[in-house]
Every structure is written in C-alpha cells, then in structure tokens.
Design a protein that fits this description.
Blueprint lengths: L3 H4 L3 H21 L10 H8 L3 H4 L1 H24 L1 H18 L6 H14 L1 H14 L2 H32 L2 H6 L2 H14 L4 H15 L6 H23 L2 H28 L8 H7 L9 H11 L1 H18 L5 H29 L4 H19 L2 H31 L2
Helix pairs in contact: 2-9, 2-11, 5-6, 5-7, 5-8, 5-19, 6-7, 6-8, 6-11, 8-9, 8-19, 9-15, 9-16, 9-18, 14-18, 14-19, 14-20, 16-17, 16-18, 17-18, 17-20
Length: 417
C-alpha cells in the first residue's frame, strides 16, 4: 500500500494528510525565502559595499549556483536514507549561515555565507518533489505539488517584502538576521508534521531487511557496498540523461528559472531608475505580484486533468507575453506584464514537477536532482547575464534575453517532451 497520507478516509489519518500539506507549505515558504532576501535590496547592497549591479547580483547567483551543485547530492542521498530526514536535517542546518549573514564584515564573506545557504537548501528543494510524488496519488498529488509551489512562491514574496521593509525601517543587517527564526520554525514544522516516507519505505523494504541481516559483515564489504551505491547513482544519472522526455524537462527547468531570476533580479534597477523612481519600500510592494503563486494548487490540479505538457505550453506562453508587455514604459502596464509573467511561471512549475513524476520510472530522487540542478544552474546564469544586458541594453536587453529563454522552453516542450 502506498502512503497513508493520501487516501485513507479515517479522520485521524486525514488529519495527518492535512498536517503534511501544512508542513509542505511552511517548509519552502520559510526555508526557500533565504534565496531571495537580498534581491529587493540589491541597490542598497551596491551602495553599502560599493559594487555595481552585476556584482551585487552575485548574492543571488552564488546561492542559486550552490543550490544547483548541492541538488546533485541530496536526491540520490534521499533515495537511500529517506526523504524526510534529509529535508528536516538540511533545513535545520540552514539556520546557522542565515543568522551569520547579518554579521558579514565585507562583501566576500557575505558571498561565502550565501553559498553555504545554497549548498544546504537543496536538501529541501530537490527532495520535496520526490516526497510529494511518493506520498500522494491521483488528483491529490497535483494539489500537494501546488501547495508546495505556493509555499515557495509566498516564501519569495516574504523575503522580498520583509527585507525591503526591514531595510527601510532599520538596516540590511537586521533584515537578513530576521530570517533565521522563520527558517528554524520551518524545519521544526516539517519534523513534527511530515509523515515518514512510507511509499519509499515499502519500495525499499526488502533492501532494508537484507541490510539488517548483514550487520556482521566486514568493513571491506561495506566499502564495496558504498562503491556499488556510487556506481548505481551514476548509472541512474546516465539512464535519465538518455530519456528524451526528461532531457526536455531539464531544458525547460534551466530556461524557466533563467528568465524568472533574470527578470526579477534586475527589476529593482529598472523601477528605481530615473524613469519610474520607486523607493525601496515601493519596490518591495511590487513583489506582491508573487501572490499569483497562490494559483499554483489550482494550476497543479488542472495540469493533472488536461495533461502536464499542454499546461506547460500554455503557462510558458503566458509568461512570454508578460515579458513583452513590460517593454511598454508605463508603470501600470509594466506591472501588468510582470503579473502575467509571474502567473505563467508559477503555473509552469507544478506542471513540470508532475511531468517529472510521470516520466521518471525509477530513481525519482535522482531525476528530481538532475532537473533542479539544471533549474538552478539556469537561475545562477540568470542572475548574472541579464545584468550585463542591463548595462549595455537597458531593460529591453534584459527582457529580450529572458524572452529568448522562454521561447527555448516552449520549443523543448513541443519537440522533446
């Protein structure tokens, strides 16, 4: 039997399911928020540390790059020791570098601490997708994936609004320090409310029983087992890279996050420039557009009904139209375009996550890790290359570059998926 979190009609087990959904919301909402705590205050960091826009953007790109690298590790690890322990343990550890960011004496130390946050973060972000695919079935899987994405969405909004408001009221150190407590709360919520990975446990039960029967085997055999585990992980990676449909999803992830990060990382420079002249607080309010992410549960459910590929094509097309609209230099129209972009992106994410579950028939944690590595590698480049486009081409350079990546994503959906 698969997880009891999904379908049991008993009231106590329905409460377990609801608790799991709450934890899947709170976890990404508070842990994932750390990725974007500097994004809305990049102009402030530029002034404080006397660096230009692309250099300040490294506080985003370095953490995204670290997440991309870390994602390669946590998925295979969770395939072997369990999803929940990896998700909770890494989330607890993130609390320390989150707290220390506030005390960074210079820009280099700040970047190092951001990188450490990024190396720990995929313990949640790369494993939660597999957890949902393991523990939920049918339409509830789409709902759960949407809840998880909504948590990420509101986490990003929480980070941008919170850091902008606290920086305006106090300073950037207080703003960054304040995110350590919510991060701890998120880890404890997942520890308390997430059921153990029962679907994964049942899948690996024979292996666990066999392992208990071999407790007296020598260390040399254990070393050989570790080598076998590494070879198996590499074999799983090779297997997934030869799946055309999964490669298409990996390309979509790369281009999707490139465009998203590129647009919203350099948006403050555009809107605080001489044409619009928005203040730090006003810039933070622009990120209320991330409330469109509340549509993710609905989008996830719809993707389960109409098909994930069709949902990806429609939502990415909506995002591309939104980017084009931002080229019209009128604030209400720019905000409308950004809203369409955000809505399209947040509707794409649960659809792609569901598609991964459909196409990965084994080693799903490894498949999710590969996808998220591509996703975050795209984001790390999206935090740098559009900054160069901004210096040389202004906002049109940023928008057209990001639009190009969206068109690549749509082409991958049509040709590979």
């Amino acid at each position: 039997m698969s997880s009891t979190t999904s379908f049991s009609s008993h009231p106590e087990q329905q409460n377990i399911r609801i608790g799991a959904l709450i934890a899947l919301f709170l976890g990404p909402a508070f842990v994932f928020a750390n990725m974007y705590t500097t994004q809305a205050i990049l102009p402030v960091l530029s002034r404080v540390f006397r660096v230009d826009a692309p250099t300040a953007g490294l506080t985003i790109s370095i953490i995204v790059l670290a997440v991309a690298i870390g994602s390669l590790f946590y998925g295979p690890l969770s395939d072997r020791i369990g999803r929940k322990i990896v998700m909770v343990g890494s989330s607890l550890l993130i609390t320390l570098p989150t707290l220390l960011c506030a005390f960074a004496p210079n820009f280099t130390i700040l970047l190092c601490l951001r990188a450490l946050q990024g190396l720990l973060m995929p313990g949640l972000t790369s494993v939660a997708i597999s957890y949902v695919n393991d523990e939920f079935r049918g339409r509830e899987r789409g709902l759960a994936m949407g809840v998880y994405v909504s948590g990420q969405t509101l986490g990003g909004l929480f980070a941008r609004l919170g850091s902008a408001a606290l920086t305006a009221a106090t300073n950037w150190q207080v703003a960054l320090f304040s995110f350590s407590l919510p991060t701890l709360i998120a880890a404890l919520a997942m520890w308390r409310f997430l059921p153990d990975s029962q679907g994964q446990q049942s899948q690996h039960a024979p292996h666990l029983l066999h392992r208990r029967q071999r407790t007296v085997i020598s260390d040399s055999v254990s070393d050989q087992s570790g080598g076998n585990a590494l070879r198996q992980s590499l074999s799983d990676i090779w297997f997934h890279l030869h799946n055309r449909h999964l490669v298409g999803a990996f390309i979509i992830g790369f281009t999707l996050f490139f465009g998203f990060v590129g647009t919203f990382t350099y948006l403050p420079y555009y809107l605080s420039g001489p044409h619009f002249g928005l203040s730090t607080v006003q810039l933070g309010l622009v990120y209320l557009l991330w409330l469109t992410g509340l549509c993710s549960p609905i989008a996830g459910s719809l993707a389960g009904r109409v098909g994930s590929r069709r949902a990806i094509a429609v939502s990415m097309s909506l995002a591309g139209c939104g980017l084009l609209v931002t080229l019209i230099p009128l604030l209400p129209i720019v905000i409308t375009g950004l809203g369409l972009l955000a809505l399209g992106m947040f509707c794409t994410i649960p659809a792609v996550n569901l598609y991964l579950g459909e196409q990965a028939h084994k080693a799903k944690g490894t498949a999710a890790s590969l996808y998220l590595s591509c996703y975050y590698f795209g984001g790390s480049l999206g935090a740098v290359l559009p900054g160069i486009a901004l210096l040389h081409g202004g906002w049109p350079g940023v928008a057209l570059l990001c639009l190009g990546t969206i068109l690549i994503a749509i082409a991958s959906d049509l040709a590979l998926c």
